[in-house]
């Protein structure tokens, strides 16, 4: 499959980081781990992955800015372009030896996400999309699932830990969605969950409390696979409100309705 120069740069960068993460994953017991907050751990592998991505992308596209999970915002001389980086989505899975984690890299141009790569180095699954060019898993074109009824749908979500903001609201919504669907799955890696919606593995996904690096890449993947994405009110304010609902047109609309009914 022919890829653009931009996509080649992104893929080469995440594969380089992926090789290092896969090695660290095999030596999980030797990682130096620090605590950033309840339920949110940062490993030496996480920091090393972010540093590598920063250095690689700065070298090939000097002057472009960054927003990164650990470093935060890094202003560039080119105000039109900004990399959005989650070097290790699913850190808790990684630290527990669960092979469900990914590198998520997206590019924003003038405030619009135009390209993304989400890569799980353990499974060697690389999800990619460029605006207007479709979504892919490795070299296979992706489409969202075709199911139209929530009763037939498997829905992904992420669970906030007890005591965190939004925990009570999430449990209330969870009851509504669980009662109206074929099942709920929680993998612990939001970027991969959205990639799974794009691939038709999940029929839909919802979650609150997500940061821009958690969802930027997945938003484009779902849309380029023919899916729909909104906030909990059905509007296009996913980043501002830190909430997302995704699926095909029917499932996404009905999932929004379930969430609204939960209050």
TrEMBL record:
Catalytic activity field: a myo-inositol phosphate + H2O = myo-inositol + phosphate
Pfam families given in the database record: Inositol_P
Enzyme superclass (EC): hydrolase
Requisite cofactors: Mg(2+)
Assigned keywords, A-Z: Hydrolase, Magnesium, Metal-binding
Enzyme Commission number: 3.1.3.25
GO biological process, one term: signal transduction
Protein name listed in UniProt: Inositol-1-monophosphatase
UniProt similarity note: Belongs to the inositol monophosphatase superfamily.
Origin superkingdom: Bacteria
């Amino acid at each position: 499959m022919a890829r653009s120069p931009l996509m080649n740069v992104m893929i080469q960068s995440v594969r380089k980081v992926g090789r290092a993460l896969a090695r660290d994953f095999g030596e999980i017991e030797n990682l130096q781990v620090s605590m950033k907050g309840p339920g949110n751990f940062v490993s030496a592998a996480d920091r090393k992955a972010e540093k590598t991505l920063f250095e690689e992308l700065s070298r090939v596209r000097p002057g472009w800015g960054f927003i990164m999970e650990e470093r935060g915002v890094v202003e560039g001389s080119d105000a039109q372009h900004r990399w959005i980086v989650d070097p290790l989505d699913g850190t808790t899975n990684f630290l527990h030896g669960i092979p469900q984690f990914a590198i998520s890299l997206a590019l924003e141009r003038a405030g619009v996400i135009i390209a993304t790569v989400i890569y799980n180095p353990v499974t060697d699954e690389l999800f990619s999309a460029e605006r207007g060019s479709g979504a892919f898993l490795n070299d296979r074109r992706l489409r969202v699932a075709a199911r139209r009824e929530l009763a037939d749908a498997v829905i992904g979500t992420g669970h906030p830990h007890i005591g965190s903001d939004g925990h009570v609201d999430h449990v209330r919504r969870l009851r509504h969605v669980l009662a109206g669907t074929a099942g709920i799955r929680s993998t612990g890696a939001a970027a991969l969950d959205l990639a799974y919606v794009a691939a038709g593995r999940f029929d839909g996904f919802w979650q609150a409390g997500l940061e821009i690096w958690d969802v930027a890449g997945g938003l484009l993947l779902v849309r380029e696979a023919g899916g729909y994405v909104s906030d909990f009110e059905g509007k296009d304010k996913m980043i501002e409100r830190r909430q997302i609902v995704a699926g095909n047109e029917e499932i996404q609309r009905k999932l929004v309705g379930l969430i609204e009914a939960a209050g």
